[in-house]
Amino acid sequence: MTMLKPYQPYLHSLLRAVAGLVLFSYGTQKILGFPASGAMPPAGSLSWIAGVLELTLGFLVLIGLWTRLSAFVLSGLMAFAYFLAHAPQGFYPAQNGGVAAILFCFVFLYLAAAGAGPVALDAKRA
Fold first, then answer.
1. CA 30-67-34 angle, 5° bins
2. pTM for the whole thing?
């Protein structure tokens, strides 16, 4: 759709911000207990370490600061999460609960290559 082409850079920034916000919310749930969940992972566990990365790097992606590095690490984290937690439960992502991990992995890989977009702190620093 050529009518959306002028908005592409801003939609890129919106994708980055929304992906960062959603992952950040997973981190707040694991580390800060908000929104309330049934169980918080024990400090130092793999799930807790993932939560710390989701919280800190998710926030950096949300605001668009050090986006390429943060997104690259998060892409690896999501690949690791998929193969460690989801793939052993079955082959198909729709059945093993790994759809979000796969999507996050590739969205963050894209952001690692493409950067933050024009509406970001990285753009202001450049």
1. 20
2. 0.95
